[in-house]
Design brief:
The chain is α/β, with parallel strands linked by helices and about 210 residues long. The protein has one domain: Vaccinia Virus protein VP39 (Rossmann fold). It contains nine helices and seven strands. A seven-stranded mixed beta sheet has the order 3-2-1-4-5-7-6, sandwiched between helices. The longest helix has 11 residues. The chain is globular, with a radius of gyration of 16 Å. It starts with 6 loop residues before the first helix and ends with a strand.
């Protein structure tokens, strides 16, 4: 493994990405080591926390879920462990999607750029959508929530897990507040806890909303 391909460098540089091309190239290199570094070594807790939020807010096991920005499928595994079986996934990175496919938890997987809608899915087709680690610097902009809401049925659940750094920047909570003011969503819960359990000070939010 070259210095350029060291997993630690992939993690350290993830927040400095500037556009979709850089993001695709970054995750193409990271796909093979992502699960080990993030899921195991760093103790990624957001997939489990987001899946548990769906259970806590009453989403039935047969619900149809879109795991947005599914990456290698860590969030899909968490959803499966929570009792969900009807799961689709999408991501910007073809290489990450190949890893997700191997986990055999998704019914459909497809590529998408959330900053350049539309997402390749019908209106109001999903009972819930999850966005685990999707909203972040150099990744997905807060306005992508508008397109995500298009895919949700009325009263569908939107669960978003993100780290403190992006939340505290202010643009993301401002977007949520605007959607509440416009009567498009209702915030059901905002839970603070571990983001990466094995990284000191790495905490984040799990925010659950209902589409009105």
């Amino acid at each position: 493994m070259t210095d350029k391909e060291k997993p630690q460098e992939h993690f350290a540089s993830a927040y400095s990405l500037q556009n979709a091309d850089q993001t695709k190239a970054h995750y193409a290199l990271w796909a093979n080591s992502y699960d080990q570094e993030i899921g195991t070594d760093k103790g990624y807790r957001q997939p489990q926390r987001c899946a548990e939020a769906l259970v806590q807010h009453g989403l039935k096991p047969e619900a149809k879920i879109l795991d947005i920005g599914c990456g290698t499928g860590l969030s899909g595994i968490a959803l499966q462990h929570a009792g969900y079986k009807n799961i689709d996934g999408c991501d910007l990175s073809a290489e990450m999607l190949e890893k997700a496919k191997a986990k055999q938890v998704y019914k459909r997987l497809f590529e998408t750029n959330l900053n350049e809608p539309p997402i390749d899915a019908e209106d109001a087709i999903y009972d819930a959508t999850t966005c685990v680690g999707v909203f972040s610097f150099g990744h997905v902009e807060p306005n992508a929530i508008d397109e995500i809401l298009r895919l949700l049925k009325s009263n569908g659940l939107l669960v978003i897990g993100l780290n403190d750094h992006y939340y505290n920047e202010g643009g993301f909570p401002a977007k949520l507040d605007a959607l509440v003011s416009e009567g498009k969503i209702e915030i059901l819960s905002r839970d603070h806890g571990f983001h990466l359990e094995n990284v000191e000070g790495s905490t984040g939010w799990v925010i659950t909303s209902r589409k009105k």
